[in-house]
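Q: How would the structure tokens look for this protein?
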Amino acid sequence: MAGGPPTGRPLAGSVAVVTGASRNAGRGIAVELGEAGATVYATGRSFGDDAATDLGTGTVDETARMTTAAGGEGIAVRCDHTDDEQVAALFERVADERGEIDLLVNNVWGGYEGYDEESFVAPFWEQPMDRYDRMFDAGVRAHFTASRHAAPLLVEGGLIVSTTAWDRDRYLGAVPYDAAKCAINRMAYGMALELRDRGVAAVALAPGWMRTEYVLREYGVDDATAHEHPELGSTESTRYVGRAVVALATDPDVMEKSGRVLQTGALADEYGFVDVDGRRVPPFEIPEEYRRE
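A: Here is the predicted structure in token form.
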């Protein structure tokens, strides 16, 4: 980015890969990066007519169009991040087309399929094994695989962000979920150590309770006024975590945060950004009724 990016587009000229970008946090992150001027490879399994899951609709090509409309360049890549060959092909394409990467956002995740709260927080001996498998295969391992391929392409000053869940080391309420998220957090720490001499940072980033497409649909609200609903007052949009990613990616001192688990609300206080409804949502805390300490 010789000469610096244009005013108002701090990531113009930069290249980002956002995994799991068909909907939810991945889409919010991709669009915010586009608004900051970045070229964004938005990846995921949902593409074209293959849009629906039990937790919402959306495709990576829709996200790419939204990213471009926001001011960047969105590029959709259909990729199943549990398939090593597809992941390798993704990064080979990025290398051929761009040569290098400034930012990787690991957001792909599995384990919410067939979600219901009662079974999700059931004792570990009653948890289905396929939930554990999805969280580690389509979550932890997918983050590792993408990072492994991205690392040789990351430029000095580059950044890996892995979305996670965290509340000051409190238990997250279900053993498979807690173990998978803790693994992601620890992996970010290890990657930070190994990338340090190359001038590349790695962090884990925890949003709060997000107003995903599924949440908006279930409550029958829109993103601008959802916080006025009594049960959604502490929620944040999926763009809020995207603004946190932009803040980190444009911070010249981001290496000082490398290896840490960060919270969107705390970064909003530090960097001075707000959510789409103008609020500064505080860092997420597990509600008292769900805590097991």
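The longest strand covers residues 154-163.

Residues 188 and 203 are 5 Å apart (CA to CA).

Upvote if useful.
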